[in-house]
Amino acid sequence: MSFLTGTYECKVDAKGRLMVPAPLKKQLAAVLSDGFVLRRSVFQKCLELYPVAEWLVLMQRMNRLNRFKKKNNDFIRRFTAGVKMVEVDINGRLLIPKDLTVFANISKNIVVASAINIIEIWDKDLYERAIDDAALDFADLAEEVMGQDDDDHGIS
Fold this sequence. Notes:
With about 160 residues, the protein is an alpha+beta fold. The protein is about 35% helix and about 25% strand. It contains six helices and eight strands; from the N terminus they run ββαββααββαββαα. The chain has helices spanning about 20-25, 50-65, 70-80, 100-105, 125-135, 140-145, and strands at about 5-10, 15-20, 35-40, 45-50, 85, 95, 110-115, 120-125. A hairpin with a 6-residue loop joins strand 3 (about 35-40) and strand 4 (about 45-50).
């Protein structure tokens, strides 16, 4: 799968269904029939939508953790808490389960944002707040994360 691109403002209907934006659906065409995994984000009050193939790669990595270490078991349990398999229906809609809607404070207006190989689903107000908060120190963060001088880690 190639990298996903785009940020879209959408609405969730009364049943918790999200119409997948057409440009995003086009990018996901090759994996739509495989389904997705929807989970709580670790760092933010948003949801992460993984194409099944991307989720399996992550699960293979996690499966290498030593289960005889309590912190590994605790991490796996917390990381997979609330995980749901979801599908895009024939009308291009994705049902967000109620417990995940509550976790992410999703009401009607949402933002669907690409995050390289996954999609984040945000309540619109929380997304705007997160972007505004991050803008304050984004230059410093960009320099720290992407501005290394060696060829292996920096981008020019």
